Amino acid sequence: MNRLILDRFRPHALPFLSGAVAVAAVLAAVGCSASGSKVNAALAGDNGSSSPTASSSAMAGAMAPAKMTMNGMGGNYQVVFLNDRRDLTFNQLLGINNEGVIVGYFGSGADANHPNKGYELLPPYAQRDFANRNFPGSAQTQVVGVNDTGIAVGFFVTANGANIGFWRAGGRYHAVSFPTMNNAKPAFNQLLGVNNTGTAVGFYNDAKGNAHGYAYNIRSRRFKMITVRGTTTLTATGINNLGTETGFYTTAGGATNSFVKFHHGRTVTIAFPGASATQAFGLNDLGEVVGTYNVGTGNNAVTHGFTWMNGKFNTVDIPGGSASFINGVNDEGDIVGFFTDAKGNTEGFWALPA
Fold it and tell me: Where do the domains of the chain lie, and which CATH numbers do they carry?
């Protein structure tokens, strides 16, 4: 990883800048300009006719002129849509580290023409900064988390449909599967988060389809179960540098809630008031947790993004989106995720606190 290049563009390298100025700096790095709340930048795949200052090959996203909703806090984010133009119908941004490196994938996986294809996205987030990250020989790959040393984790899908976790460092991929005889068929293992000590977290499904969370030490290659009392299934999704873990679970009564489990063993339940389900997907070293919650059930369910810290929730929704998902957060409070737009496409976004 070329730290000098990353330091040049990453927002937290200039802590005195506001979110708006940091976004403008990124856009300026690829030859785009900002005027008020409007940014003259073409989305990847556009023909550039609406932007005299940037072409689709120069810029991967455009700054949203509208503000994100932050209930209960009154704060706002500056939002940039980031989509790999190889499939503008489906992008998910799933993790971000303190260097500003983002990981995710494009392709819905719904058919052979739209397989999941993993990527790593480096600042300043132009189309040329999307780097392929696919497990060798895999049918599909999703990259879900990345730490500050550049170790990335995720999972790949084999030709027979098995899901297998992996970690990547120095250009080499390593498969990870929890050692058990009680596996789903085909096997189902995923790694979803990793901290700077090289501890990854994820889950596997047993023969009955129940999820079991675990931590995996990349250096020692040892596994540890992650449990919460009273749960029937548990998915571990994130771990910070203090060893605090997060994820979500289902109880015997059918409730889906999230948890924060501190390294000393204390567990806190996270359940958005009035929600039918709350799912945490990541956390940072300050204890800020991000994820989604659902209001309503079945066809009437609506998905909202959230941040949670010290017992306080904030709703985070992309204006105009029918569903918002917050998947990753770094120590600057920058978040990444995806939303469903008015056309039914899934778009990735990166947002900085204003």
Answer: 3-353 (2.120.10.30)
